[in-house]
Amino acid sequence: MSHPSNPLLEPDEGLPEHPPIEPRDFHLQPEPVPLAPSESVLAAPPVPRFPAWSWWDALAVLGFTLFAVFVFSLIALAIARHFPEYRQMAVGELGTDARIVVGAQAAAYPVVLVFVFILVRTRAHGRFRDAIRWNWPGMAAPGFFLGGTVLALVVEWLSHFLPIPKSLPMDKYFHDASSAYLLAAFGLSLAPLLEEVFFRGMLYPLMRRAFGLATAIVLTAAAFAAIHGAQLGYAWGPILSIFVVGLVFTVTRERTNSVAASFLMHCGYNSALFAALWVASDHFRHLEKVAG
Question: Other C-beta atoms within 10 Å of 231: how many?
């Protein structure tokens, strides 16, 4: 049976014949050139250097602190001369008045903290609390404060085995109840805040990077004890006690990665000391019982 011819199925004799397509003609696109890893994958951002500040920055903070305290001390002395009770007093006597000395430091420390804040922010290019590892401990905060009070009791007990002088240079600031309350307020706020921000926030990371963990803890505690040397008459017994306290604060900062934790312990430690003095002196009314 014959089929009718279909012109669509028959070749068109008027058109030229096409050459056969060889398999290689299917690969006309060039082979892709592999990109270098730096071109194909976005480079990871560099890890920020910690700490971002240098030893020179730490020295700048120390120098600025001394300068600020000196300037505000001069201002406090000048203001004191306008009050009748201070006009006839020698400069040496004024230098032992807590209202003048602590007043000058209370005015200087906020300025120093602002200086530290600006310096750290400039070096770290980020949030201040992140740069110094402030890291508030949250619900554990009261525990650190309580730990500081326990530490004070332990150190006080251990001090009975050390040669502690009956009178220390810092005792001269406890003239009366108002001076004692002023010292307590300063010792529970600005003093521990600045000391922890500097020693555990700025100095310790520099020490750890330069000397390693154990040496950094010891050196930071030694520096912390050294700044209290004048207050303690450079007697080795009290200095050893404050060195142990500095060790505990620094270990706390290392284990918790939190300057806030060591600050809370510092506040708890100072609170216990002032509370013991408050009780022993009959609410700061008989300071002669405990101060030389």
Answer: 15
Which of the four pLDDT bands, split at 50, 70 and 90, describes residue 26?
Answer: very low
Q: Is residue 110 part of a domain?
A: yes
Using alpha carbons, list the distances in angstroms from residue 147 to 40, 81, 181.
53, 43, 23
First to last CA, the chain: 136
pLDDT digit string, tens, across residues 101-132: 999 999 999 999 999 999 999 999 999 999 99
Backbone angles phi, psi at 231, to 5 degrees: -65, -30
Picking from 231, 245, 210, the residue whose alpha carbon sits closest to that of residue 291 is: 231
Host H or E run for residue 117 = helix 98-124
Q: What is the pLDDT of residue 272?
A: 97
Number of domains into which the chain is organized: 1
Evaluate whether residue 25 is within a structural domain: no
Take residue 34 and report the two structure tokens written for it. Answer: 């592999």
C-alpha distances in angstroms, 274 versus 59, 102, 151, 166? 31, 16, 14, 17
Q: Is residue 236 part of a domain?
A: yes
Question: The whole model's pTM is what?
Answer: 0.83
DSSP structure class, residue 201: I
Separation CA 130–CA 132 (nearest Å) = 6
72 lies in some domain? yes
Contact between residue 101 and residue 174 where contact means Cβ atoms under 8 Å apart: no
Query: In 137-224, at which residue ranges do the beta strands (DSSP E only) sit?
Result: none
* Domain interval for residue 102: 55-289
